[in-house]
Design goal:
mainly alpha, globular, homodimer, two-stranded antiparallel sheet
């Protein structure tokens, strides 16, 4: 059974051998660039680990793992245009370097390359994997659309926010696991378990992301905190705090949100205090831990040897204590 | 054997029943909008006709026909952003109505919906159809990239232009036919014939488009002519004329191209005259007819009853005399 690091090595090697064309350079170089920026490769890792639960031949799942990682990078390419993001993983975004048109078109090509990877799967897995992949890919688009819609709304409710992050983030982690299982011949019960674990992992991951954007130690976190607060981003924290029963704190929070000009550090500090006083800083962590606990329980149900589960258990536990 | 009109009816009906979701509205409405703008449906038509050459059960090819039409509309959605086009089929473009972000994301969703259609094919056809579809889809992106590259270059050669339109336009028509053949169980020889016919049809179609943009009768054509001339677009006509041996005409042509300000009608007339005097207006039509003649010859080789070929023959011949 490979270790997490061995899995990652297999993934990096395979990514180098996906055979992305070279010409025209303007089309394919941005894809190589964004894939080369790294990242944790969590999605293909989940695919391979899930396949490993049910089959010793995890290579069968590799094309699906590649498809998912390439698809994920495609979403980053297009999301960065839509979100006008200048920096991705500490480097300039594709549209900043090559312009929006190139970022649109390279993203399109990346999505097609993802499907080209899927088409390398054994014939019997192609249709069931495509079914999960397509449904998930559409949901990711739906999540991004909801996220954009929320920017223009002032009455976003917590359940709507949770549904948005389920679609935008969690379903792809869930599908990564389920697809790994499909490629290893897992039965439906186990496939559903895999999906549920991935979903929980995704929810916890996103909630932790929200938490860390506000409460992380800047040095350990490795990036500036408070971006969500400055941009009045409707995260779990903000939405929950706005629903607090302490009307004075809600009033103060609204004052800060509506303030056209402010001192950056002052606003961050003030809102952090409100989050702590309303207790939503604890609520969000409890919510994340709830998802993780559920995922761990479901993982226990999965019909495979304890040793195979270990790397995934480590990922789940590390999420609870992650600082970056 | 269905007539062309009956094929079109089947296609329109099937497009209405593709089950495009409704929510979130911002994501899916633009897809329904662009699919609803109509168009000649030439690609799905070619798919069904090609299937009809080899099998009476053309319904088998319908999901592929839908996938190709949806994919084509996805390319229109994204191309219109990149080309900053305001009007498509006489109506405002998606990004003009809903904004660029929506057009990007709806386009992405449309591409996924196309693959969802492919996944409805019988299992044995899925992999071979995906192979042609993916390769073609990438080529279409490559063609669009070359087209954008050409805008910034002043030394585009005729063979480069022909390669660009082969990728941007022709391969999708070629794939439409080949995929129809695959779904009807045609052998490799016939599949290659189908591909070649589609390729020729696409080349002729694009060259005719270039010709008509300059030389059509505005009333019969139904839209303003001369757009390519005004924008100095590097079409077959412009590139050929710039390579003319008549150095005086080339000099005059360059003068018009470089002129920063001009009277629209005057420029159109002057360049039309240069095209006629250099004879490139004839060259382009001869080139188009050459492609059509070749396609007709290849069609003769195809192993099916003469009656089945009739609707396609009509399309090929109508192209030669098309005025809109």
């Amino acid at each position: 059974m490979p270790t997490t690091n061995e899995y990652i090595q297999l993934i990096e090697e395979s990514l180098k051998n996906t055979g992305i064309p070279n010409s025209p350079e303007e089309l394919y170089k941005p894809i190589q660039y964004i894939l080369g920026l790294g990242g944790k490769r969590i999605r293909p890792l989940l695919t391979l680990m899930s396949a490993g639960f049910f089959s010793p031949v995890i290579e069968t799942a590799m094309p699906a793992a590649m498809a998912i990682e390439i698809f994920h990078n495609f979403t980053l390419l297009h999301d960065d245009i839509m979100d006008k993001a200048d920096i991705r993983r500490g480097k300039p975004t594709v549209h900043k370097i090559w312009g929006e048109n190139t970022a649109i078109l390279s993203g399109d090509a990346a999505m097609i390359l993802a499907y080209e990877q899927l088409n390398r799967l054994p014939e019997k897995f192609l249709c069931p994997v495509m079914k999960v992949f397509n449904q998930t890919a559409l949901q990711v688009c739906e999540g991004q659309q909801l996220d954009m819609n929320f920017e223009k709304r002032n009455n976003v409710q917590l359940h709507e926010y949770l549904e948005m992050i389920r679609l935008k983030t969690s379903v792809l982690l869930a599908a990564s696991m389920k697809i790994g299982g499909i490629c290893a011949g897992a039965d439906n019960t186990n496939l559903n378990y895999l999906y549920e674990i991935g979903l929980g992992l995704g929810m916890a991951f996103q909630l932790q992301d929200d938490y860390l954007d506000t409460f992380a130690d800047e040095i350990k976190f490795g990036k500036t905190i408070g971006g969500d607060i400055i941009n009045n981003k409707k995260t779990y924290l903000l939405i929950s705090a706005l629903n607090s029963e302490n009307k004075n704190l809600v009033k103060e929070l609204k004052k800060w949100i509506e303030m056209p000009e402010f001192d950056r550090a002052e606003k961050i500090n003030a809102i952090k205090n409100i989050y702590c006083e309303t207790g939503v800083n604890n609520d969000i962590q409890l919510a994340a831990i709830g998802y993780i606990n559920n995922a761990v329980e479901v993982l226990n149900q999965i019909d495979t040897v304890a040793q195979a589960k270990k790397p995934l258990e480590e990922i789940l536990f590390s999420l609870m204590y992650r600082e970056k």
